[in-house]
Write a structure and sequence with these properties.
17% of the residues lie in helices and 38% in strands. Strands 5-4-3-6-7 form a five-stranded antiparallel β-sheet, covered by helices on one side. The chain has a two-stranded antiparallel sheet with strand order 1-2. The longest helix is centred in the middle third of the chain and has 19 residues. The mean pLDDT is 78.
Amino acid sequence: KKTEEPKTKSPSLGSNVIIRPRHVPKNKFEVNSWEYFNQTRIMSVNQEQPSRGIIGGIREEARYALTKAIYIANQGLSASERLVFDRLENGYHRVDPMRGSEYILDFVFRK
């Protein structure tokens, strides 16, 4: 018997978006750790490469999230009220095997 994934309706994501359940670790070794990053570096708990330059997928996904955040923040505002991106203050990234990449991003805007 095939089980259906739960669906939700979201005005920002479109209709019938599939939301997968979070990965539930069975022990401490399966816990997904967060990587911290700023505008230039990623800091990880990985002992082999604790700090590295920010390149590739994380940079592109953070840029997409920024573009979306600016669009949402400026909806319905006049030109004089609009927010302008200043910098990325902090970012956190991890990969959930059930849901994909997860981000927490702290952007600084100015008027």
